[in-house]
Amino acid sequence: MLTLDLHDARPLHEQVASAIRRAIGEGSYRPGDRLPPAKDLAGALGINTNTVLRALRDLRDEGLLEFRRGRGVSVAGRADGRALLAQRARELLQEAKKYGYSRDDLIDILEDLT
Questions:
Q1: Domains in the chain: boundaries
Q2: Which intervals hold domain HTH gntR-type (predicted)?
Q3: Comparing C-alpha atoms, which of 45, 43, 2 is closest to residue 23?
């Protein structure tokens, strides 16, 4: 199941979209799989249904989800590796900023790892 970080400063719809994108990228949801109804996701996450719907629309616009009348929302395709890494990099940059590190500091840290 999807989870949200209550300490994350990003809007909730972005967090929901990231969690679903990550689940698709990691293979928890595969092409053709149906997602639970937005109302059920919202209830499980403790957020408003409209917030989940906004996240689902964003993912539909990215081409990851398909909306089918009467059949719900299903996974259209798999998140490409670059998109998944870019999402994780954004999350890492936000985490670094929480601790007072800049983008350049983070780049230095990553370069030290290689």
A1: 1-79, 81-114
A2: 10-78
A3: 2
pLDDT digits (tens, 9 = 90+) for 31-80: 899 999 999 999 999 999 999 999 999 999 888 899 988 889 999 865 56
pTM for the full model? Answer: 0.69
Q: Which residues contact 98 (CB under 8 A, 6 or more apart)?
A: none
Distance CA 95, CA 56 (A): 24
Q: Using a CB cutoff of 8 Å and minimum separation of 24, what contacts does 85-93 make?
A: 87/18, 87/21, 87/22, 87/25, 88/22, 91/18
Domain 1-79 class?
A: mainly alpha
pLDDT in tens, 82-109: 666 777 788 888 889 889 999 999 999 9
